[in-house]
Amino acid sequence: MKIMISKKKIGKIIMLTVLSCVAISCKVNQEETKPLAKLEVAPNGHYFQTEDGKPFFWLGDTGWLTFGKLSREEMKTYFQDRKAKGYNVVQVMVLHSLAVKNVYDDMALTNEDVSKPLVTEGNNFENPEEYDYWDHVDYALDVAQENGIYLAMVPVWGTNVAKGDKVNKEQATQYAKFLADRYKNRTNVIWLNGGDTHGNEFKDIWNAIGNTLKTNNPDQLVTFHPFGRTDSSDDYHKADWLDFNMFQSGHKRYDQDTVKTAFKEDNYKFVHRDWDLKPTKPTLDGEPSYEGIPHGLHDTLQPKWKDQDLRRYAYWSVFAGGAGFTYGNNAVMQMYHKGEKKGAYGNKAIWSDELHAPGASQMQYVKKLILEHNYFDRIPDQSIVVNQGEKYDYLAATRGNDYALIYTYNGKTMTLNMGKIKGEKVKASWFDPKNGEEKSIGEFKNEGVLDFNPPGEKQDGNDWVLVLKSK
């Protein structure tokens, strides 16, 4: 669908004039960048791989407002940084609202109608009459591809549908077809249907979007990003368009969650449940508590979640059998700029500064640890742990045929059933999730019950992974 317009706002012309001197240097030519390998579900059904059979561990970041709030140069800064820190997926909204526009004053839609994307002829950045919102999305995909990153894109954020009269099934289907046609040749596109919304509401619309995207582009993975403390498997696990599950473990503490049936902070319980579902599909935590966001979100006087909390969510869910993990930072997810009005959830930090928050750098180590061992034979196995514990005392265990990994969030002594992996002896070491360093502690008989005492005093945030390898 092409909708022609003759002019853009004067403000955009001024901005493009200023930026014209750097336009050539920041232009990305898709033909000059090798497309990323297509992603697919691995034969075991629990993990991802590339089309050539190589392991793909999803390490995501939430850059929700990238398309609307970052300039082309800022996109380069953002994606280059995330590549350097080991991220390979960025979750982003295509339409945050129906009135969304980008930093160049380009509106995404005509009359806030999702079935009418506002598209101009051409894509020349130096010509304001050609460059539009969708060209800016294309550019983001190019830069992401250049940096080895897949964009997990939410077509339309759930609140826009939840209003009830803004998006109907017919409009949603037309819009999804537009997206499917425009991005059919992109190998670095993943679709996150929904967007922080209840999966049991407006199912006709979410199914229409999911079916349209999957039918037209069967090689692009599709899931559903649900409301806090819920999971795509609650409503769409058996949907033909859903390739993998995603849950939002949420931003509340144990004591803030009053729903008796909720898993609260125990995000690993989502994975354990999804692991046993049929048909078998991968699952992962797509939105845990963000670093720098208040406990419970809305009361800015509450303490803020820290890097240690993100590590806990990452290792708990991955060791439970998760296919990856998505990190989040309060400033980065909303791309908060200096001089903006009040940030959401009490944020005052600048997005570019928070790229270097402690947790943002630490997430690469869980990816590194998992990929160092046989990827496809890894399973969750809590039978290894004698003293599993509850809440922050919980010990999470995962293993392959010749290795086992056990995580403690607070330095609790581990009492373990040996003999769960092959070999008469095992080599043991402590892996530090804060810096990725590993220190050997010797060899042990692979039989009976043994205690392993992590370094340091027992306290929240003194987290370690015990690594056992067959000798």
Automatic annotation (TrEMBL):
Domain Apiosidase-like catalytic: 43-376
SUPFAM superfamilies: (Trans)glycosidases (SSF51445)
Residue ranges constituting the Putative collagen-binding domain according to the UniProt record: 379-468
Alphabetical keyword list: Hydrolase, Signal
Any Pfam family the entry gives: Apiosidase
Signal peptide: 1-23
Domain of life: Bacteria
GO molecular function terms listed in the Swiss-Prot or TrEMBL record: hydrolase activity
Name of the molecule in the record: Glycoside hydrolase family 140 protein
